[in-house]
Amino acid sequence: MDAQQVEALITVLLDRGADIGARDDAAMDLYVTDDEQARQALLAVAINPETPGIVQASAGESLGQIAARTGRVLPDKERTRLTPAASCEYEVVQPGRVERTSTSAADINNGG
Hints:
The chain is an all-alpha fold. The chain has seven helices and no strands. Helix 1 packs across helix 2 (20-29), helix 1 (3-14) runs parallel beside helix 3 (36-47) and helix 2 runs parallel beside helix 4 (53-70).
């Protein structure tokens, strides 16, 4: 993924007026980059209680995937600020595991 693609995904992710599905897709797609701006954007939506839950969850999962791939886990001061949906998805990712988890954010948000 090139820098232009990352920038476009970040723009969609942070756009509160964008379609929720597009924001969720952006959050999921950003897990493949090690770009610090992408990580900060994912964190921003993952800690914001006003972000739709499905987007929070996808951001949390992507942050977990980045941590698993790079070894850069969130420090406690960031991890403890994650919303419950983001925290749940972040914690489900096991170290060294790079593929997306099978638990969908929609299932978590619907209590399943």
